[in-house]
């Protein structure tokens, strides 16, 4: 027992809880740490770990991520979600952790990773380093917790700052009440951007860029200005009993607690640059009370068009430069571009500039951006695409509202009995694929399929954040290219069902099918015919893997319905197989497009034991033939029924099915 290697806290020795199911590992940890003056507690399962942690409030938990009863991530989650364990320091304890695993654990709230087997010689120092965040001078416990050395330790561990810089910042910070990150930035040890990167990527806090449009002024004013300025925070959204708080340092637990105490609201943390927060505070609080500041003309114009477009159920707005200097605005209504009142030409450039600011697109002539904007009561998500044209720059705004309700299949004309067989196979292991070119419809189908699966843990990987549902663990990815590595990580993290969209990169599909060996995975893909999709999957993954894991495919194509307000029956042609055709010339109700609403044409295929046997024996062609016979007429039959009922036009069906309608599929 020696007090030399570990700076001693004033009140009692450091208390470390070691969690591992291997008694030999625990014994080694206990011997080494006890000899260095630590108090060591032990747990051999996740349940034990939670009980012991709650009763003893250890200074550090050394957590084996592969426990017999629950995954380490699950233990972490329960700690973080509890009132008593949210602030406990946890270090992952693992052999052979991949970089992906390590990143995932850090995001989930681990300070870092200690690899097994331990190096006996410097193990106590390693533990001390995590306990201290390197340079804490050993103040009493509450003060240490207040300071949350998580940030310092993390920056140090990633080489973003040196030990000297940290020590100097801690010294300068003493007694000032400033946050550590802020001091490091002031001292020039780290840039504001690097600090934000570290906080966001290493600790997993969502990063927000604050602009006037995303701030809910009412939310911002739930706390006094002086407090907001002192703590470098800004409430940006209040929803029910929850407030989203933009924080320059989201590890600042003291401030989170105080906001809860002052407002009674649960705090969701988001990260924003300190300078960005100050700028917004200036904007918000320098306005004279009672004087409503008029929004600039381009802001009003965009708001006007979004409100109109929402009302007309449009999906896109196109801002194009005109040939004679007159700007042009068009809405996409039921697939068709329709002209709408255009702003004065001089506003066109201002609207594009505002859109770039709003969606964070850079100044490149061609580029994309994404952002959010409140239009009335609707929280709209905007995706912008900028393109140079011969007559000047153009922008397309695609928008949708974020939804927390359950997707409604009936609205798309999809009967529950049609998807029921797919729901049944979703309960085991394997892969179910949903093919549809329209990303929103696809997202709706995927969410509708997982909707009734309660109880298990559903982890989603999505590129389009339309549906937000508290019962799911949702991860939004910038592109399908990222899906493959995430599928592997999430499969290892113990999800009961993984929803992954989209799987169009071959690597993503392969990762999905492999995950299907041990998990259930529901995947989205832009290929909207069962036969084509299956061919693609077989080419990319091979017959053996497909036989082992593929459980079903649903392919869907949206078809537009004729506007009920201007629909008229045509004459029909006697003696031909064509039914009496309806058409719609267009009216005010349908924005002159002739269409209103849509249905889905679907194909469903569930491989049976014969199909699987044929695949196992490499008889791919025979299986594809069976699939063609089973699915080839499904969409056609549904489409014909819609035409015969006068709900859609033969031309529309021809467009959706890309060709011949009335001949049999075998001819
Ligand atoms: Zn109409």
Overview features:
23 strands; GMP Synthetase, Chain A, domain 3; 26 helices; 667 residues; Beta-Lactamase; seven-stranded mixed sheet; binds zinc ion; alpha/beta; Rossmann fold; disordered C terminus; disordered N terminus
Kindly provide the name of the CATH class of the largest domain. Answer: Alpha Beta
N-to-C CA distance: 88 Å
The overall strand count is 23
What is the name of the CATH superfamily of the largest domain? P-loop containing nucleotide triphosphate hydrolases
The small molecules bound here are: zinc ion
Number of domains: 4
Main structural class: alpha/beta
Strand order of the largest sheet: 17-16-18-19-15-20-23
* Average pLDDT taken over every residue: 82
Strand proportion? 15-25%
Architecture per CATH nomenclature, i.e. the level-2 architecture of the largest domain: 3-Layer(aba) Sandwich
Q: What overall geometry do the principal axes of the alpha carbons give?
A: flat
Query: What name does CATH use for the topology of the largest domain?
Result: Rossmann fold
pLDDT under 50 segments (min length 5)? Answer: 1-10, 134-148, 288-292, 662-667
Number of helices: 26
Work out the helicity level. Answer: 25-40%
- Taking all Cα atoms into account, the compactness measure Rg is 29 Å
Structural notes for this entry:
The protein starts with 14 loop residues before the first strand and ends in a 10-residue tail after the last helix. It is flat. The longest helix has 15 residues, at 297-311. It folds into four domains: 15-132, Rossmann fold; 205-285, GMP Synthetase, Chain A, domain 3 (2-Layer Sandwich); 297-401, Beta-Lactamase (2-Layer Sandwich), CATH 3.30.450; 410-559 and 598-657, Rossmann fold (3-Layer(aba) Sandwich). Helix content is 39%, strand content 22%. Mean pLDDT is 82; it is low at 1-10, 134-148, 288-292 and 662-667. By secondary structure, the protein is of the alpha/beta class. β9 (316-320) and β10 (328-333) form a beta hairpin. The chain is built from 26 helices and 23 strands. α21 runs antiparallel to α24 and α22 (543-549) packs antiparallel against α23 (609-616). It binds zinc ion. Zinc ion binds next to loops.
